[in-house]
Specification:
One of its GO terms (molecular function) is phosphate transmembrane transporter activity. InterPro entries: AAA+_ATPase, ABC_transporter-like_ATP-bd, ABC_transporter-like_CS, P-loop_NTPase, PstB-like. By secondary structure, this protein is of the alpha/beta class. The chain is built from nine helices and ten strands. α3 runs parallel beside α6 and α6 runs parallel beside α7. The mean pLDDT is about 95. The structure holds adenosine-5'-diphosphate (2 copies). The site of one adenosine-5'-diphosphate has 3 residues, from loops.
Length: about 240
């Protein structure tokens, strides 16, 4: 099993707030890793560090390294557009663009220069199928994405990420705005996608972490306090 993401002595400060302290972690590919811990312990900050989303926040300072496939994303000559193509992100609230279902999925491929209608059609169908959404939306691809249910919107957002063929998918509490049935469908989807992607999910729901993850990482006050295989961590002696 090869290591996809390698984090060494990583620290992050928001101004004087030391939000991540000396993070060392290796994440294997084709696995789901759950980041667990109380509110404010640094889970989202760490997740956003893996595609440099924190760069947009004023006063952020980092030290240490995060390698993805051997490249230090905090090193020199990192192109953020390329990084975010490789490392996609799904947020807590589903937020489709106010465009048609089709145009939401085609957005990323178009951004990366794909213009051919037939090719875009293929990508849209393949990606919506991969996100378990094709059968539900194939007859209304050109209607607004904003008319979909919350659960469908979250799968659409995931499809939008899958459409640019990322290698790593970051999810920040992706089910917290969903009802139980939509949550179950999303969890099934996550477990199916890990064959092809490296998935990192933030959750404060222990049952969810136990259900979907292969590796569990516990944060407290900006530090990793425990990590290991989920089946060992969640089995009480
Ligand atoms: P969660 O605990 O679910 O991550 P929060 O309520 O802590 O949600 O954060 C919501 C948003 O506010 C996030 O985008 C986070 O980055 C931002 N945020 C959290 N703490 C601060 C802060 N001290 N200053 C500015 N923004 C913050
Ligand atoms: P969690 O995701 O575990 O709830 P966060 O990563 O959101 O934790 O927050 C970790 C720490 O960083 C908290 O002290 C929070 O207030 C702070 N923080 C988070 N986002 C921001 C931000 N955008 N600006 C300033 N401080 C932030």
């Amino acid at each position: 099993m090869s290591q996809k993401v390698r984090v060494r002595c990583f620290q992050l400060y928001y101004g004087t707030n030391h939000a991540l302290k000396n993070i060392d972690l290796d994440l294997a590919e084709n696995q789901v890793t759950a980041l667990i811990g109380p509110s404010g312990c640094g889970k989202s900050t760490f997740l956003r560090s893996i595609n440099r989303m924190n760069d947009m926040i004023k006063g952020v300072r980092t030290t240490g390294t995060i390698h993805i496939d051997g490249q230090n994303i905090y090193g020199e000559k990192v192109y953020l557009v390329e990084l975010r193509k490789k490392v996609g992100m799904v947020f807590q609230q589903p937020h489709p663009f106010p465009l048609s279902i089709y145009d939401n999925v085609a957005y990323g491929p178009r951004l990366h220069g794909i213009r051919d209608k037939k090719r875009l059609d293929e990508i849209v169908e393949r990606t919506l199928t991969e996100a378990n959404l094709w059968d539900e939306v194939k007859d209304r691809l050109h209607r607004s994405a904003l008319g979909m249910s919350g659960g469908q919107q979250q799968r659409l957002v995931l499809a939008r990420v899958l459409a640019v063929q990322p290698e790593v998918i970051l999810m920040d509490e992706p089910a917290s705005a969903l009802d139980p049935i939509s949550t179950e469908r999303l969890e099934e989807l996550i477990m199916r996608l890990k064959d092809q992607y490296t998935i990192i999910i933030v959750t404060h729901n222990m049952q969810q972490a136990a259900r979907v993850s292969d590796t569990a990482v516990f944060f407290l006050n900006g530090e990793i306090v425990e990590s290991g295989p989920t089946d060992q961590i969640f089995t009480n002696p």
